[in-house]
C-alpha cells in the first residue's frame, strides 16, 4: 500500500477546436485532464488549488469513499466549493475496487471541460481475470460547445428548455474528421498486429448516451464501472454518461492495408432535439519498417463502422442485460438476498409553476423541470454532510423524501394532466447496513426518455429491468440475485424500469442523480443519509481541517 500524491491546479487555458479558440477551465492546462493512477488499496492525496474565477469541486466518480465521504466532492452535498485562491486536499483510499473510473468537476456545468480518467490497477502480482494485455488506452468521450460554458448553462436554466446542442462530440478531446475543418483534430490509436489492447471507455459527455464501435473489429466487454463482468463479445457498446466500460480489442493477425474508423454517436429516445453527429477517431496499424519503404504511396482504405440506429431501444435493453458480474469465488457478488427498506422512485420530467417575472415556455405559463417522486431537488446553501454531521439540519434539509410517488398512475401510458412537480431539499435516512431495494420507474409525463441514474458512495446490483410499468406482483420473482451487474450508474430505460439493491454500509450523505447534466440542473436528484454504525470502524470520522467553508 502506498500513498500517491497529485497536484491539481485549476487554471484557464486556451484550446482550439472546430477552428475556434476559447479559454476553458482545465487541470494543469491539460484537456482532457491528467490521468490518476493507483493500485487497489492505495491512498490518493490530491491537492486541488483553484486559480479560476469560478467556484470548483472535484468528484471521484465511482470511487466508493468508504468512510471518507468528505472527499466525495459534489458541491453543497459533501462540501462547500473551493473558492478562487483556495486549496483543498482530497484524501481517500481506493478499497475493494479495480478497473476504470473517472474524475470530474461537480459544480454547475464545469465538467464540460474538467474531467479525466482514474485507472485502478489490481494489487501487485494479482493478474486480471482475462488474457494478458499488450497495452491499455483510456478513451474518454465528451461534448464540445463553441459557446462558453456559462452561456450554455444559463440558457438551459432560464427558459426550462433543452440547452443549446453541443457543436461536437469528442474522443479524447478531439471531434474527429467528420466535423468541418477538423481533420487534424482526430484521435489516433496506433496498434500492432496480433495484440490484445485494453480500451478503458469513459462517457464524460454532458447530455448524451453513446454508441461506440470500431470498423471491422469486435470488442470483448470485461469490466463495467470498475467491476469485472462475464466477458461477452459485441460489435458496439452502449455507454451512458457516468459509466465506464473496459473492452478488449484483439487486433488482426496481419496488418491490413486499411485504417479503421472509431466512432461514437448518440443513443436518444427523448422528445427533445439532439445532435445526431458522430465523433470519429482512427485505428491505424503500424507496419514493419521493411514494408513501409515500399508501400509509402499506397493510400489506405478507410473503413467505417455501422452503429445501431439512434433510437434502438431493443439493442440498449439487450446490451444492458448482457452485463453480468463474474460472481465467482475470487470475485463474489454480494447481492442483498433480503430487503430491509423498499423504495419506488419515479424519475422523469414534469412541469412546475413559473417563477415571477420569467418567460416560461411550457404549457399554461409553466416550466419544464425534472424530479424524483415529483420532488424537484433544491440545492442548499451549505453542504448537507456538514449539516448532518454537526446536527444542524434545521433550515437546510428535511428527512421526508417520499418513499413512493404521491399517487400511482400509468407511468408509461397517456400522461395524466395534473402532474405538477413540487420542490424541496429532502433526503431519505437509512440505518447503517440496511439492505435497500430501489425500483426506478421512468415516466412519460412529458415524453419517454431514458435517464442514467448515478449513486454516489455505493455500487448497486441491477437485479431487474424491463419495459413498461414495474409490476410488484410479477417482476420480483424474476430478479437475478445470482450474478447481476454491479454498477454505480444505470440507464433507466425509456418507458421502463430497473430494480437495484445495495447495502447501506457507508456512513455519510450520498447524492443520487440523473447524469444528464440538464436533468440534474432541473432537479432530477436527491440525497441519501446513511447513519453511523455502532462500532468505531462504522462511523464517519470528522471532516478534514481544510474543508472549504461556504
Ligand atoms: Cu459523475 Cu454526481 O457524478
From TrEMBL:
Comment on bound cofactor: Binds 4 Cu cations per monomer.
Main location: secreted
Enzymatic reactions: 4 hydroquinone + O2 = 4 benzosemiquinone + 2 H2O
Cell compartment(s), UniProt: Secreted, Extracellular space, Apoplast
Names of required cofactors: Cu cation
InterPro entries to which the protein is assigned, alphabetical: Cu-oxidase-like_N (IPR011707), Cu-oxidase_2nd (IPR001117), Cu-oxidase_C (IPR011706), Cu-oxidase_fam (IPR045087), Cu_oxidase_CS (IPR033138), Cu_oxidase_Cu_BS (IPR002355), Cupredoxin (IPR008972), CuRO_1_LCC (IPR034288)
Any GO molecular function: hydroquinone:oxygen oxidoreductase activity
GO terms (BP aspect): lignin catabolic process
Gene3D superfamilies: Cupredoxins - blue copper proteins (2.60.40.420)
UniProt cross-references to SUPFAM superfamilies, sorted A to Z: Cupredoxins (SSF49503)
EC annotation from Swiss-Prot or TrEMBL: 1.10.3.2
Keywords: Apoplast, Copper, Glycoprotein, Lignin degradation, Metal-binding, Oxidoreductase, Repeat, Secreted, Signal
GO cellular component, one term: apoplast
Domain Plastocyanin-like span(s) in chain numbering: 10-124, 136-287, 401-533
Functional note: Lignin degradation and detoxification of lignin-derived products.
Family of the protein in this entry: Belongs to the multicopper oxidase family.
Protein name per its UniProtKB record: Laccase
